């Protein structure tokens, strides 16, 4: 699912979708740097570099894919947190917001002949009721308002 973020100051929009997962998987710290996530670039390098250097380069074959997979799974949340913390707002998509099963003319619900509104709390109750089930008011007495 893609999310669109809008900067309220200038109206600029950024879209975060599943492509971000593939981009961070294949590009790693280059993608993080391009998005301005310098803290995550240094975390990625701090995880990958020491293990690769200590092992003489052998663990690069294991740590680079592991770090890339971890960031691929978490990049959407990281980008969402980045944009929301900077004051960007989530832009609603009209196609997603609209309910396809809703009727075109949503009429107000009408009271049936068997119900009426409570004069004290304005909730719907049965016509024969002598006490409101919502506010516990005695309906045999008329309201004094």
Question: Could you please describe the fold and organization of this structure?
Answer:
Helices cover 43% and strands 12% of the residues. The protein has helices at residues 19-27, 29-34, 38-54, 60-85, 94-97, and strands spanning 3-6, 13-16, 89-91, 115-117, 124-126. The protein is α+β, with helices and mostly antiparallel strands. A 3-stranded antiparallel beta sheet has the order 2-1-3, covered by helices on one side. Strands 4-5 form a two-stranded antiparallel ribbon. The longest helix has 26 residues, at 60-85. A hairpin with a 6-residue loop joins β1 (3-6) and β2 (13-16). InterPro entries: DUF2628. The chain crosses the membrane at residues 41-73. This is Zinc ribbon domain-containing protein. Keywords: Membrane, Transmembrane, Transmembrane helix.
């Amino acid at each position: 699912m893609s999310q669109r973020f809008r900067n309220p100051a200038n109206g600029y929009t950024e879209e975060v979708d599943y492509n971000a997962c593939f981009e961070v998987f294949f590009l790693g710290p280059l993608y993080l740097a391009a998005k301005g996530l310098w803290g995550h670039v240094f975390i990625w390098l701090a995880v990958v570099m020491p293990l690769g250097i200590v092992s003489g380069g052998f663990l690069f074959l294991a740590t680079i894919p592991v770090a890339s997979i971890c960031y691929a799974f978490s990049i959407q949340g990281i980008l969402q947190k980045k944009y929301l913390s900077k004051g960007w707002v989530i832009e609603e998509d009209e196609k997603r917001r609209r309910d396809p099963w809703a009727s075109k003319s949503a009429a107000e619900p009408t009271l049936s002949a068997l119900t009426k509104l409570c004069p004290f709390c304005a909730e719907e109750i049965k016509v024969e009721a002598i006490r409101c089930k919502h506010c516990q008011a005695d309906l045999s007495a008329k309201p004094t308002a």
